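User: Structure tokens for this complex, please. No commentary.
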Amino acid sequence: MKKKSSISKKPMSPLAKKEAIQGYIGLLPWLIGFLCFTAVPLIAAFCLSFTYWDILTPIRWAGLNNFKEIFQDGKILSSLWNTFRYTAIAVPLTTALGLLIALMMNQKARGILIFRVIYYLPAVLPATAVALLWIWILNPEFGIINTFLSYIGITGPAWLNDPHWAMSGVIMRACWGVGGGMILFLAALQNVPQSYYDAAKIDGGSAWQCFKKVTLPMISPTIFYFVITGTIASLQEFTLFKVMTDGGPVESTTTFVLYLYNVAFGRYNIGYASALSWIIFFISLVLTWIMFKSSTWVYYEEEGK
Amino acid sequence: MKREISSAKRKKQIVSILLFIVLALGSFVFLFPFFWMISTSLKTDSEVWSYPIKWIPSKLIWKNYIEIFNILPFWRYFFNTFFITFCRITGQVISCSIVAYTFARLKFPGRNVLFILMLSTMMIPGVVTLIPSFVFFSKLNWVNTWLPLIVPMMFATPFNTFLLRQFYMALPKELDEAAKLDGCSIWGIFIRILLPLTKPAIAAIVVFEFMAGWNDFMGPLLYLVDDKLYTVSLALSFFQGKNHTDWQLLMAASTVASIPLLALFAIAQKYIIGGITMTGIKG
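Assistant:
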């Protein structure tokens, strides 16, 4: 180990130089894609946000007008609020549910393998098919949810047709796909060494204490990962809203990304849409930063392998 | 002493029975939508709208499944989706393997910085690059072709590369060194020795990309205009617009669209779960 580090400080040997060249060649399948489909579009999105453009007619300089318009556009706040409502409910709910189910699945019980498959199955289905299925499930008169509610004497709401309930309907569908999170948490739970639990038991720890002091810290990196990726994905959720509600009724489920999509590809207002896209970029960045800053609860085991 | 043990045993038994009951009740919630989808797909039009709800159709109308193939050129959509997905998978497996091996095994200045750069691009919301990419592809005259869906996937993407790179890191270095002594070149080691050993990780990527390809909705929605080029997901969403009330047909179409993913899941279950474990998300 020491030898290697002393070599790297010397000027490169011809052999090392050859390897370095091969290394850069080996990165090309990523670098070209990164430049063409990430770096250049990022710069272009920045430049486009200072223009008026509908792709067809010549591009015109707009200065800061697009950004000024943001502050006058009332739809931004309402669409951001919808995105926020969805994210703030769906992410904690799917995290908690996924974790709870994973904890149950981690026990030894009869037929546990079949249960794992059953709970994971909804996460496997194609998103559009599931969205259609849920429109039908949430049908006010003939859907199963309101039918079950009527059995216990509740008249269910009109769900996707009611501006007050449409978002709840979409969130219910998101919870049905909780199996994805479950599998992730289950994998983490199975990586916790049994010896830790044995040690906790010898010390007389109750099941709750075991969970709080052993399980939770050990799987906290996975929870953290799931919350961050889940938040970024929820902020951008498109298919669900586009197919299930297309933003309605009365724009009660028009999320920010749906609004941006309509501005860009409905009105072909490319410049303004580019300016809007920076809002979601900025929000994701700030949220990720806050989550990393407040991640003191995440426990990283020292790499001692 | 003996009694204490047996009481602890009994307690464990009760807990496991309770667990079974809770999980079974939960299974009902998770499975019922499936049942409802299939039940609806086999009803007559009048039974779909019968009140109170008929849980099981009085007569199974298999004809619904034939009818959707008459209304929509579903076979074509299946072929289109399979073809696009196949290209995606091939592109990802080849390009990500090369880049993962490079990051894991070759030494060159700036390797760590570039690796972190690659990982950090995972955090960029796709929405930001969406519009310029659309402009780019429309200037190339690629709109209304499959190229915008396929070409970007020919290049290594961060998540798959990361997964493979972790796998390469776990392979013993002795393998490379032995091969080097036998006169194997850098890329010889990759193709002959290490690549065959990463089969489980490649299988996981194949499965993930299959699911991603089959599920992609925004891409086809943006780039495909001609309905001959549609993918299954896109066709399904337009089918809804055309047939607002024929739920038996919509559910039959949704069932058919789900079959490839369900089949994949049945075949590749262990790779799906294995792949998730493999990323070993530890920060």
